[in-house]
Design goal:
The structure is a homodimer. Chain A is of the alpha/beta class. In chain A, 36% of the residues lie in helices and 19% in strands. Chain A has 13 helices and 15 strands. In chain A, the strands form four sheets. In chain A, strands 5-2-1-9-10-13-14-15 form an eight-stranded mixed sheet, with helices on both faces. In chain A, strands 7-6-8 form a three-stranded antiparallel sheet. In chain A, helix 1 runs parallel beside helix 2, helix 4 packs across helix 5 and helix 7 packs parallel to helix 9. The longest helix of chain A has 15 residues. Chain A is globular, with a radius of gyration of 19 Å.
Chain lengths: 333, 333
């Protein structure tokens, strides 16, 4: 079993590759819900949707979110009717939110609703929201405090961020199945997602970080940072706001108390020693995911690298000094 | 000022004609809300929507409901997600229901929401729901009691109806503006709508029937019955269930306590004496509304006939024995 901690875009691409090389039923995705938003009265769960659509094979390639080939007739009319329109929902996508909202109103949990949605769309992997409890990622910026979607979509992440808060996280419980998925996995993969606003909310749910420290599974992160910038999105600015170096070392630092290995772009191989200093091994390969082949190859690299517990430097990998005593001496309390 | 009591399809067509021959701002439509339904968690007001779309010039000609040229992407996906799908909402139409539901949740009245929606769509006439209070038209049939939409759409009005109930009507209040519109109108027109399930709920709201009896306005109904059947829909079966003759006489009987005149199809001119017996004048003309010209001509006929208080039999009209002392001696208590 493989457990993948997921945000949206990058994680969706990575899972598309992973399900090409391992049986989908062996994959459990634990997905950020800190970006969830009530929009037009509907419960929208952007990362859960991206992951679900990706695994169902209907994620828009062009946009990276929403349904492939979707239309926006309702959205255009909403704008005419004076509704806020900076957040777009396609017509087919709308059905997901309408049905989710109805199911939630009927008393079902987000976990149950997410599973049902995935089943209806033919997804064989398991998709778990990080929590059934509300956690709201808020970004304190130079222009004031914003919800994640306000910061990311409405303001196009232009305001300089100062701090990210996970409102409600301290009272949230991991969704049913999350801790077991982490404990029982052979491999936990932290997808190439924003460490602060995609993976950060997951780690902020009490119990999840502890489970990651305690699991016997190998834990591998795929770096969303290449060189000194994020592959996409505002991960760089947000890491900087949290006092982290924008590099593979910064990524490794966020996860240092539970991570075994980080998979980085080949061009970052030169930085490996600065990550290995943290007791985290480094595997370098091509991490850019443009084609379906890229996605599958990255997933294959992660699987292969995760089995290299003993340092075996090759032309493709920079191995560390072996497994570190992770659970015994966590770097973060 | 002209006040029109409206259901959906027939009333929508009639209003399209009326607004071609009188300034739209002089028209107030009082619309049935007994068919309103919560669908996919959204407040759908089918008759209000048909009237609004008709007056905005965007009503689907082909379907007679919903938005012209609308797509059904969301609907198709809802079906896939296991949602009930026997009631169709187009993608553009959905925006109306999403926005209405949001506005209602925000504490606005249906009257206010209806006005705002009409304004946003460029409608110059006034559209009033009959009431801001919930009134639910239910049809008791041989197959059990059904909501109106279940009876009309889901069951395609196949079960034999026994009785129609207007649940909540006795506690409902006319929407703000309705009684004034009736009192201040020069002419009140009962649109060619189903007397039982479209006009019936309006008349069931306490105060409205009394206002119709008391208004100095001339009141003219356009018969939705031609010969022994409804032009469309189940008006015939429903009238029969309520012990009414399915004819222009039956229509006149429903409104006998406030009606001055009924406008009927030419072929029904022969039945005029049986209506005039009720003290209601009869004007016959072409009432079928196929083309835009038909709609405008019918509206013109209604306006012309409404002014014929003194009997002036012509080749186009069968006039009654003059105005009857309506308010003084109502036929129905």
């Amino acid at each position: 079993m493989i457990c993948v901690l997921c945000g949206g875009t990058g994680a969706a691409k990575f899972l598309q590759g992973l399900q090409r090389i391992v049986p989908p039923a062996e994959i459990t995705a634990v997905v950020n819900t800190g970006d969830d938003v009530m929009w037009w009265g509907l419960h929208v769960s952007p990362d859960v949707d991206s992951i679900t659509y990706a695994l169902a094979g209907i994620l828009s390639r062009e946009r990276g979110w929403g349904v492939e080939g979707d239309t926006f007739e309702c959205h255009a009319r909403m704008r005419e009717l004076g509704a806020p329109a900076w957040f777009s929902l396609g017509d087919r996508d709308l059905a997901t939110h309408l049905q989710r909202t109805q199911w939630l109103k009927g008393g079902r949990s987000l976990t149950n609703v997410t599973a049902e949605m995935a089943r209806r769309l033919g997804v064989q992997s398991r998709i778990l929201p990080m929590s059934d409890d509300p956690v709201e990622t808020r970004v304190v910026t130079e222009s004031g405090e914003l919800s994640f979607q306000e910061y990311f979509v409405r303001e196009r992440h232009q305001p300089v961020p100062w701090e990210v808060r996970y409102i409600g996280a301290e009272k949230a419980h991991p969704a049913r199945g999350v801790l077991d998925a982490i404990h029982q996995a052979q491999l936990v993969i932290v997808a190439p997602s924003n460490p602060i606003t995609s993976i950060g909310p997951i780690l902020a749910v009490p119990g999840i970080r502890g489970a990651l420290r305690a699991t016997p599974a190998t834990i591998v992160a795929v770096s969303p940072i290449v060189g000194e910038a994020a592959v996409s999105g505002p991960a760089g600015e947000l890491m900087r706001a949290h006092g982290l170096e924008v590099s593979i070392r910064g990524v490794a630092q966020v996860y240092a108390d539970f991570l075994d290995m980080v998979v980085v772009e080949e061009s970052d191989r030169k930085l490996a020693p600065r990550v290995e200093d943290l007791g985290i091994r480094v595997h370098s390969c091509r991490t850019m995911m443009q084609s379906d082949e890229d996605k599958a190859e990255l997933a294959r690299q992660v699987l292969v690298a995760s089995k290299m517990r003993t340092p075996t430097p090759t032309s493709q990998s920079q191995a560390s000094r072996g497994p570190r005593p992770r659970a015994a001496s966590p770097r973060r309390p």
